[in-house]
Amino acid sequence: MFKFVANLTFLFNEVPFIQRFKAAKKAGFKYVEFMFPYDYDLDEIKDQLEKNDLQLILFNLPVGNWDLDDRGLAVDPKFKLKFNEGVQSAIDIALKLDVKKLNCLVGNKCDSYPDNETWDNLVDNIRYAASELHKYNIDLMIESINHYDMPKFYLNTTNQVFDLINAVDRPNVYLQYDVYHASREGEDHSLILKNHFNKIGHIQVADTPERTQPGTGLVNYEFIFKELEDNNYSGYLSMEYKPSPNTIESLDWLNKFGYEL
Asked: Is the pLDDT score of 134 beyond 90?
């Protein structure tokens, strides 16, 4: 049985953010995640997690100013100090909220430096983050983002992520396998699961092309779920989709595939 996670950035948008914890609990979830904790009252989040008996599984490292199109700090050499500070800030929050996985959005392509310099900077930054997280038994996820949704993002494919993971060569660095992004890039899910299963640290699901719940689009989720079951996947499976028509009704996809919370 998969451990299903409600991504509170996407699900339960019918209510304000802080009320989504209670809504997730009422719907039957035991696990939640969201993109960024940095602008919220952490004591209030901790209180909501405890009151609703929820475990926070994952959030992202700081990315800069999202509203100004920042999508991560790891690539651009001019953000090196800011990236390091962000790692420490994320660790402090992870320890407070008992989180064991952090995801890194590496950032947009940087034209101000030669390609080899940005690559070397990225590898060095991810090594730093991995080493710092390892001190506290926290794993680091690396995620690719499709070029349709984020045309400037540095890592668009799973193979690019694994080029980075192999270059970094740290035991606590894993792929955050986002099925939606991989599908939008036309990637072969059978090859991802066959060749990289042991380095998948976290999974997020949504269908293509509308990023709604599984079973509403083009992704062959029957195959993906069967492969995960056959390989005894014991990690988390996060619902990072745009619920249609609303969150509660969207959860019917679980019944269609024979699952329950």
From this structure: yes
State which amino acid sits at residue 83: F
User: Which residue type, as a one-letter code, is found at position 169?
Assistant: D
pTM (2 d.p.): 0.97
Give the active site residues: 143, 240
The DSSP call for residue 7 is E
Task: Tell me how far apart the alpha carbons of residues 101 and 137 are, in angstroms, rounded to a whole number.
Answer: 9
| pLDDT tens digits, one per residue of 20-65 | 999 999 999 999 999 999 999 999 999 999 999 999 999 999 999 9
SS3 annotation, 81-110: HHHHHHHHHHHHHHHHHCCCEEEECCCECC
Sign of CA dihedral 215, 218, 223, 226: negative
User: Could you tell me the CA-to-CA distances from 253 to 3, 167, 168, 256 in Å, in that order?
Assistant: 15, 38, 38, 5
Is there a contact between 27 and 54 (Cβ–Cβ < 8 Å)? no
Asked whether residue 73 carries a pLDDT value surpassing 90, the answer given is yes
CATH, range 3-256 = 3.20.20.150
Other C-beta atoms closer than 10 Å to the C-beta of 78 total 11
Q: Which of 85, 167, 196 is nearest to 74 (CA)?
A: 85
As a 3-state breakdown, the chain gives helix, strand, coil percent values, each rounded to 5, of 45, 15, 40
When pLDDT is averaged across residues 98-103 and rounded to a whole number, the result is 98
